[in-house]
Write a structure and sequence with these properties.
The chain has 256 residues and is mostly beta strands. Helix content is 12%, strand content 41%. The strands form 4 sheets. Strands 4, 7, 8, 9, 10, 11, 12 and 16 form an 8-stranded antiparallel sheet that branches. A 3-stranded antiparallel sheet has the order 1-2-3. The termini are far apart. The N terminus is likely disordered.
Length: 256
């Protein structure tokens, strides 16, 4: 039967009204009272009705049959609404890893036979040298690395290297300056494993052409950009994305 009952609320000492539903079940001495509170009316009444039906079914079970966990599970499934969970998957791609193997020294000339000369502490230029001035040319100390299988290697014609100036702790690096990358010399010692993305500025892919006996050096940090010299003498060694068009990006290496 539906009736009204006076009670005192938690936030107010004045009498308030609540709705009670008293239901006498067939089992003697068992009373069920369902209280309807403010909220979603249809959902609250539905849950109350399901609760009454579920308890009624339980009381009608045979006295000799034990209450099983499965009975409680189905009972709770009827009362509580299911909660859905969203599965979030994420992945992280690590920076390229280059394993240092060894270093070798080479003489280098561009295909116009210009040598590399260290003209200031951090400025590398290309110019023609003859006679006694030939001793000014620098040798490259090329550090060789073994890449991960997905990054090429001797079989693909792409060998990762770092290009140092022999006798100095200077290495070529490719960094962004303004809207385009530039080539610079940095004081460093990178004859070790390269395990961070930041250090890939020192890595270049050595692209050999065995038939011509020449090679190019492509930046690993900026694919499509190659170390180049100017068509004019005594100009800085730089980097370009238009190799051998208005510059020279092909070299000859020799060991002595």
């Amino acid at each position: 039967s539906l009736n009204e009952e006076t009670f005192y609320g938690l936030d107010c000492l004045c009498p308030q009204k609540k709705l009670c539903l008293d239901l006498e079940l067939t089992s003697p001495g068992v009373g069920i009272q369902v209280t309807l509170t403010k909220g979603h009316p249809s959902r609250t009444f539905r849950q109350a009705a399901v609760l009454v039906v579920a308890v009624t079914k339980l009381l009608k079970r045979s006295a000799h049959k034990d209450f099983a966990d499965s009975d409680l599970g189905s009972f709770l499934d009827d009362i509580f609404e299911p909660i859905s969970f969203q599965k979030i998957e994420s992945s992280y791609t690590g920076a390229p890893v280059y394993r240092y193997t060894r270093s070798q020294s080479f003489d280098i000339l561009d295909i116009d036979h210009k040598c590399f000369v260290l003209e200031s502490p951090t400025q590398l230029v290309a110019l023609h040298l003859q006679g006694p001035s030939n001793g000014r040319k620098v040798k490259l100390n090329i550090a060789l690395y073994r890449p991960r299988s997905s990054q090429g290697g001797p079989g693909t014609g792409q060998v990762p290297v770092a290009l140092g100036i022999k006798g100095y702790q200077l290495y070529m690096s490719c960094v962004m300056s303004g809207a385009e990358p530039v080539l610079q010399l940095e004081e460093a010692d990178i004859r070790r494993d390269i395990e961070s993305e930041e250090m890939t500025r020192f890595i270049f892919y050595r692209l050999d052409s065995p038939a011509e006996g020449t090679t190019r050096f492509e930046s690993a940090a900026f694919p499509g950009w190659f170390i180049c010299t100017s068509l004019q003498p005594r100009q800085p060694v730089g980097i370009t994305n238009q190799p051998d068009q208005v510059n020279i990006a092909t070299y000859e290496l020799s060991r002595h």
